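Quick one, probably user error.
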């Protein structure tokens, strides 16, 4: 059955108008500040989004106009074209042309053609061959000519005050026709939810008043043994009870109203999944590839605002998968794969939110090519390339302008999009994006999203004499820890939590509110808030938990965005105070920097010997443990390779030669005991030192480790960094 695209047209028109407004304002600002790279990036992203969405809906005219604007903005971003009146005038005329095209699309759902003269002028400007007369009044959308009469004169630019001024029109511009769309009632619904937030705050103040009235009631009560109770006290008691009952009834009604209002904002994921399948089919046909797209979880509902942000990210990831990730039929046959490529979009509920995974069975990311492009653009220190983990290399693809494509096409290769995904998912939607890629086996993106941005559960915590918020969906657990319950790793304290090392960092130190204390802020029973993003976890040491409640998270003002990325938004508390809601991915990144600085400031790096550094394989299914052990070993001159489970460890051991292996026990598939035993059957690893590091500490487990062939058995709970290094050094000394 053919997909009906009409239901998506109105939403596209509304989103495109938003981007046109940003383009118009941004181009005006660019004239005043031509050397602002972030401003150019923002303009580029808006044009790119319009182009991609128009392509998905088969609006070739809008796609062509936006494509030519994107070319010119790309030249501006690359420094090949200097912002000047001619180019900016052309871009503004492009804004007007798309606005006029949108009016026609909204009116009849057709595909109005692009203005060939304007597109040619934009192309000349992008190529550096613009003529002085290119930016002249009159560019706009040329209406289609009827067959029985000559073509009509070009229409004036879009009927907006700015467009009229650019074209030099004297008559007052006509107002755009206002059409019924889903955007109007949703704006009113947002206002309703804002008012509900105010109702909730008034209720909170009512609870405070009730507490005060109860205190007055107790104070006014007759002393024990008094013969008579004053009538005023009885009246006050009735008032308190009535106030309590009224407040409880109001809270029940407000909660029900809030729930119904939130339900009205919800849309099924099929809203973006269905057109995505159509887009994949069209992109695959254009790229001469055979691709099957499978969808699961389309019935799951998310807030309209989350759906819109996810849609942009989804388009970019799918476009890259078809253009870069999936091989053509010849390439798949050469790789031993079936000729039909496979794309999968799957959604599932997870910890109070939703995870959307987009995976393909293509070639995977090319580590060396990403590093080479990053070096070429000055994004990476050449001295650090050998020590980069795969996750750190994958993080480079989010840099603006970085692309590994050898050719720029209308689908991809311009180095735009991945930075948009990071910003949209992380900052705008208060979510997180992670990716896993294996060479030759494909790539998987996972978007972790809240159900709604209107109201979210927020933990309020105290730290450094201030209050801060954390989205509850990013909090794994709260735990009391003492100094005796921790181990020291990479110069910092860590907690062993269910067989993995979780670093502990005072939140005040991360936020720059207090210098690092000698004991790292640990007291007799310090509260640690464990946050998690995908596999990574971090324990934040705070003073106390203040409260947990449903709150409206307000976005940061535009001038406060960016920077270190530690703040995701703001909430207003019961006492009308503004509190910053912290961004969990930003905190994790800041903690990695702190650990790196601690390692650099620690003891001098002692090389194992005059020969090449020992090469150690670290196998653990915990990302935290892999990173921490890697940091410890690299601080003392070891070369480290990591594997995320026993099977991958076995494959990497066969693919290279390692001087020692450190492995966990509890891993999916092939556990540490089985990995050790299997390694001992290989001639290359019969004498290689193998150390088991695990939280399992029974005598029986230790005996199993010895039977499997391990040379050392180290319990994580009693982990001693110096002991590990001494044991490893002694074993390697014997081996060499």
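Nope, works fine. Designed sequence:
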């Amino acid at each position: 059955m053919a997909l009906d695209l009409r239901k998506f047209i109105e939403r596209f028109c509304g989103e495109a108008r938003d981007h046109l407004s940003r383009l118009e304002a941004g181009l005006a600002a660019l004239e005043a500040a031509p050397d602002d790279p972030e401003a150019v990036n923002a303009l580029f992203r808006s044009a790119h989004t319009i182009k991609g969405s128009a392509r998905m809906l088969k609006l070739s005219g809008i796609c062509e106009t936006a494509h030519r604007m994107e070319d010119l903005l790309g030249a501006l971003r690359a420094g090949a074209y200097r912002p000047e009146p001619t180019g900016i005038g052309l871009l503004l005329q492009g804004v007007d042309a798309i606005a006029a095209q949108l009016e026609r699309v909204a009116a009849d759902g057709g595909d109005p053609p692009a203005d060939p003269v304007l597109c040619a002028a934009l192309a000349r400007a992008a190529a550096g061959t613009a003529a002085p007369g290119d930016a002249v009044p009159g560019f706009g959308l040329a209406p289609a000519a009827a067959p029985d009469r000559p073509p009509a004169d070009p229409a004036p630019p879009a009927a907006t005050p700015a467009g009229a001024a650019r074209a030099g029109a004297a008559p007052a511009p006509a107002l755009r026709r206002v059409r019924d769309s889903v955007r109007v009632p949703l704006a009113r619904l947002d206002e309703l939810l804002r008012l509900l937030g105010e109702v909730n705050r008034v209720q909170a103040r009512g609870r405070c008043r009730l507490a005060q009235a109860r205190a007055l009631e107790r104070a006014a009560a007759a002393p024990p043994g008094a013969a008579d109770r004053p009538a005023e006290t009885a009246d006050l008691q009735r008032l308190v009870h009535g106030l309590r009952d009224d407040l409880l009834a109001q809270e029940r009604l407000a909660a029900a109203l809030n729930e119904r209002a939130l339900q009205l904002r919800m849309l099924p994921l099929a809203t973006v999944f269905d057109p995505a399948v159509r887009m994949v089919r069209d992109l695959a046909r254009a790229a001469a590839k055979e691709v099957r797209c499978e969808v699961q979880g389309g019935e799951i509902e998310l807030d309209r605002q989350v759906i819109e942000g996810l849609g942009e990210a989804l388009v970019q990831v799918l476009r890259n998968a078809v253009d870069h990730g999936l091989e053509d039929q010849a390439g798949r046959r050469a790789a031993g794969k079936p000729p039909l490529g496979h794309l999968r979009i799957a959604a599932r509920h997870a910890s109070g939110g939703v995870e959307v995974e987009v995976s393909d069975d293509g070639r995977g990311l090319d580590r060396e090519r990403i590093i080479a492009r990053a070096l070429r653009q000055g994004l990476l220190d050449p001295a650090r390339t050998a020590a980069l983990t795969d996750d750190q290399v994958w993080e480079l693809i989010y840099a603006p302008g970085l692309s590994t494509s050898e050719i720029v096409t209308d689908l991809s290769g311009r180095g735009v999009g991945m930075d948009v995904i990071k910003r949209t998912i992380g900052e705008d939607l208060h979510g997180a994006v992670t990716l896993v890629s294996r060479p030759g086996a494909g790539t998987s993106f996972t978007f972790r999203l809240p159900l709604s941005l209107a109201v979210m559960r927020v933990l309020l915590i105290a730290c450094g004499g201030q209050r801060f918020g954390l989205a509850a969906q990013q909090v794994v657990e709260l735990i009391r820890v003492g100094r005796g319950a921790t181990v020291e790793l990479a110069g910092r304290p860590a907690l062993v939590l269910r067989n993995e090392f979780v670093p502990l960092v005072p939140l005040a130190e991360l936020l720059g509110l207090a210098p690092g204390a000698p004991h790292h802020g640990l007291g007799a029973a310090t509260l640690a808030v464990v946050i998690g993003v995908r596999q990574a976890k971090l324990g934040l040491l705070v003073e106390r938990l203040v409260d947990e409640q449903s709150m409206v998270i307000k976005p940061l003002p535009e001038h406060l965005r960016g920077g270190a990325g530690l703040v995701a938004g703001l909430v207003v508390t019961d006492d009308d105070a503004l509190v910053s809601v912290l961004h969990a991915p930003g905190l994790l990144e800041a903690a990695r920097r702190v650990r790196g600085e601690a390692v650099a400031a620690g003891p001098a790096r002692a090389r194992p010997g005059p020969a090449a550094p020992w090469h150690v394989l670290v196998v653990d299914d915990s990302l935290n443990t892999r990173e921490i052990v890697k940091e410890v070993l690299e601080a003392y001159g070891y070369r480290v390779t990591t594997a995320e489970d026993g099977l991958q460890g076995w494959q990497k051991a066969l693919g290279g030669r390692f001087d020692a292996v450190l492995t966990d026990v509890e891993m999916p598939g092939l556990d540490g005991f089985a990995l050790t035993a299997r390694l001992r059957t290989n001639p290359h690893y019969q004498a290689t030192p193998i150390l088991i590091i695990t939280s399992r500490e029974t005598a029986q487990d230790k005996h199993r480790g010895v039977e499997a062939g391990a040379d050392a058995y180290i319990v994580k709970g009693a982990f001693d960094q110096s002991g590990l290094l001494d044991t490893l050094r002694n074993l390697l000394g014997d081996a060499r």
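The mean pLDDT is 77.
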